[in-house]
Every structure is written in C-alpha cells, then in structure tokens.
Specification:
By secondary structure, the protein is mainly α. The protein has eight helices and no strands. It has two domains: about 70 residues, no CATH class; about 100 residues, no CATH class.
Length: about 210
Amino acid sequence: MQLLARLSEDRRLATLLVFLQHLERSATDDALDVFDAFMSKLTLTGLGRRKKERLRTLKDLDQAALRLRTVARVLLDSGVSPAGIREADFALVDARTLEVAIDTVEALANEDDDPAVEVLVGAYATVRRFLPAMLAGIALEGTPGAQPLLDAWQFLGRLEAGGRGKPRWADAPGRSYPEGGCGGSSPGPGKWIFRHTPCVSWTVCSTH
C-alpha cells in the first residue's frame, strides 16, 4: 500500500486496474475449475446410476427384443405372402404382447451414441440451481471454432435475463457444440432447454 501511495494518481489507477483485471481472470478460472469438477462428478454419478438401472432392466429389454425379432423374421420370410404377414405375426405374438414389447424398447433403449448425454439431460434441475449466477457473472470468449458454443451460452444468458430482450425459442441455436459434443437438435420450448442447458454447461467446462 505504501508503494502504491507513492505513485502518481494516473499510475496508481492504472496499477489498480491491472490488478483488478488479473483478479477477475483468476476468479473466473477458479470458478470454472470448480464448475468442471462438479460437472465431472455429476456425470460420473449419473453414469453409475444409469448403469445399475440398465442392468436391472436388461432382462425386460431382452425379452422385448426377442419378441420383436420373432415378428421381424416373419416379415422377412419370403414364404409368407404379404397378405398373410399380419395373421402369421399375431399367430406367434399376440397384439397386446407386441404392444408391450414396443413400449418396453421405447422406454429402455437409448438413441444417443454417448450415454453421458442422457445423464446430463436428467441433470437439468441440478444444473439449473447455479447456472443463472454463472451466466450473469462470467463472459466467455473463444476462437471461431467455439462460436456455436458461445452462441448457445449467450442465448441461455439472454433467456435468464428476461425482460424485453428475452429471445424467442425460434432464435435458439440449432447446433450448440462442436462435433463430438452433446449433439444438436431442433429448437423447441421443452426439448431445447432440458437437453441443451446441461449439455452446453458440460461442453463449457470440458473446453475451457
């Protein structure tokens, strides 16, 4: 403080400005490191829970797949006439059992290549607790290759800010991360926010 007091006013203000800028960058890095550790733990915990759930339901999924296999084989059997396929299928698997098998596959099968995506989508409520503060307090910058991610981060920030500047869902970025991230999907009031909010957050902490 004594050295600072000896400086001229201009140099003192410049020194304080540089110090505050350094402090801001350091605090931002610390916040992102904590964010990274939290998201990693959240993902690992979710993957472990998902693995247990998948093992528990594997028998149901296998039974449903076997029933659908039986129906598919009839469909591919050249010895069964097109007019008789439906009757032949129902002779092997009744309509109600087939409906249950389809519902089981839809409920248990995962379309995402990366299971972390499903885990993150389920973590929306958790991420939502602290994300508004991060969106308001941290301004991200990056290379042109990171622009899709930055667009998504900024969109979430405007969404949280509300007011007259609140964006429309039609303006939501269609693809929010680089290749290999959480993937893209069409914007929509429910689908975008639940799928992309945690995925954007994860990609931010994995690329910072």
